[in-house]
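R.M. (postdoc): so does anyone remember the format we settled on? I'll just put the structure tokens first.
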């Protein structure tokens, strides 16, 4: 692959692939479920608990300057640790990561549909044709951007991400200078539903907050296209963690303090009493700054979602490419476009799958099978990602013993493996609790089904690769 991403571009790619819709829209369902203080606390805890995982990713990315790093780390380590069975487990971790990101993108497309419907009709409900049109349009455009050469794609990523920093700073400034901010609104410990158990309230939204820090490793997906990747990618991962933590926390704190919210008539969403103003960024911006400012932030949220979809598709296309390189995914996915050097067949496949998932989720939400597709898909994605996150640590430990002399420009701890063990155990406990204790059974079941789909895929392409070798 062609090198075309700078150290700065790697950082922008990391932030841009995480900050999509959640930073601006997810606070509304979180505040409705847990209440102001619990939601703000959940974001703070999630940011702190994401640090051990970030450290693990920093060391692994410094060891593997290759395309599709998140897959390569685990595939290599598990094959070394468990000869025979390790290849299947390594593939499954790549598949769960890949499928989980596609689910996350579907979640984001539902958030965009709700946002645009609210702008046009004043409510999330919309005609049956509206959701599919929005979803197809979103992924058509973001896929088209991915056919640019990596240097031009990185420049586009920089612009989208800088816009997001500007949005966060502008919104916080608007709230603080409006005269409406009141710290007492943030300090309400009970949920709107009346639950006074603060721990339960925090736990009810912790997975959604943890999901907000997933995909920190996207900079590692493009390591082979990044300048001095063994040094610049670990730095980009750390800066990504700091940046997204600051954005999430400041946005939730500002929204929670901007007004005293209450349930609507059917107790599903929060709004400012006596108005139709919802507890999200565009709605609050319009409430505080007037209709023009509200429309301006709505447009910025739209661009933020487009930018996130674009960079996320870019990252996971490299994962699919590396899976194909190991012979366990369609061979065409390892074919690069002659002019731009991008994995074109991966991009077309992703477009089809994520569009179908988004349309199905939107239809199920509209039919009432589950009322909030946005939160449902967010929790499902978080459940799947939790297992990937836990395995990163175990793979790091295994490589400390199987490949102690492998070059590690970034290393957790100066000498010995004690600190590596500590961050691995903390990561496993954190993400294990989030997956098993903070996610409903329906989301868990959906995540398990999607994850297990990787088993027949592995054996199919394993046999196909063996047959190809026999013919060769």
């Amino acid at each position: 692959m062609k090198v075309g991403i700078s150290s700065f571009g790697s950082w922008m790619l990391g932030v841009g692939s995480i900050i999509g819709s959640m930073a601006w829209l997810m606070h509304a369902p979180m505040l409705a479920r847990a209440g102001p203080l619990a939601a703000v606390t959940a974001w703070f805890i999630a940011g702190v608990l994401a640090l051990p995982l970030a450290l693990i990713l920093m060391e692994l990315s410094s060891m593997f300057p290759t395309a599709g790093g998140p897959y390569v780390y685990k595939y290599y380590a598990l094959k070394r640790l468990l000869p025979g069975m390790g290849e299947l487990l390594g593939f499954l971790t790549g598949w769960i990561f890949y499928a989980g990101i596609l689910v996350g993108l579907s979640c984001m497309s539902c958030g965009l549909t709700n946002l645009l419907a609210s702008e046009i009709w004043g409510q999330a409900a919309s005609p049956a044709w509206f959701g599919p049109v929005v979803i197809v349009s979103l992924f058509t455009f973001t896929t088209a951007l991915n056919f640019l050469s990596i240097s031009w794609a990185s420049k586009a990523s920089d612009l989208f991400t800088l816009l997001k920093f500007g949005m966060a700073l502008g919104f916080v400034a608007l709230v603080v200078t409006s005269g409406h901010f009141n710290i007492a609104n943030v300090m309400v410990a009970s949920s709107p539903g009346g639950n006074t158990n603060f721990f339960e309230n925090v736990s009810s939204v912790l997975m959604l907050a943890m999901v907000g820090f997933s995909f920190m490793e996207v900079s590692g997906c493009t390591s082979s296209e990044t300048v001095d990747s063994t040094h610049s990618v670990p730095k980009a991962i750390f800066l990504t963690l700091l940046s997204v933590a600051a954005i999430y926390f400041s946005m939730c704190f500002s929204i929670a303090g901007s007004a005293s919210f209450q349930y609507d008539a059917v107790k599903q969403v929060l709004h400012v009493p006596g108005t139709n103003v919802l507890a999200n960024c565009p709605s609050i911006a319009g409430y505080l700054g007037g209709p023009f400012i509200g429309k301006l932030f709505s447009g910025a949220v739209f661009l933020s979602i487009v930018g996130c979809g674009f960079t996320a598709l870019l990252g996971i296309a490299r994962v699919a490419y590396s899976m194909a390189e190991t012979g366990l995914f369609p061979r065409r996915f390892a074919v690069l476009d002659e002019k731009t050097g991008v994995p074109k067949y991966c991009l077309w496949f992703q477009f089809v799958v994520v569009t179908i998932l988004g349309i199905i989720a939107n239809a199920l939400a509209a039919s009432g099978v589950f009322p909030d597709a946005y939160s449902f898909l967010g929790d499902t994605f978080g459940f799947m990602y939790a297992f990937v996150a836990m395995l990163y640590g175990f793979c790091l430990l295994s490589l400390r013993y199987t490949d102690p002399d492998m070059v590690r420009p970034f290393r957790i701890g100066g000498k010995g493996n004690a600190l590596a063990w500590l961050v691995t155990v903390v990561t496993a406990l954190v993400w294990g609790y989030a997956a098993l204790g903070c996610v409903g059974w329906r989301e868990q079941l959906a995540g398990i089904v999607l994850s297990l789909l990787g088993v027949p895929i592995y054996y199919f392409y394993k046999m196909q690769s063996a047959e190809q070798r026999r013919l060769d």
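R.M.: ...and that's the designed sequence above, right after the tokens. Also worth knowing: The mean pLDDT is 90. The radius of gyration is 22 Å.
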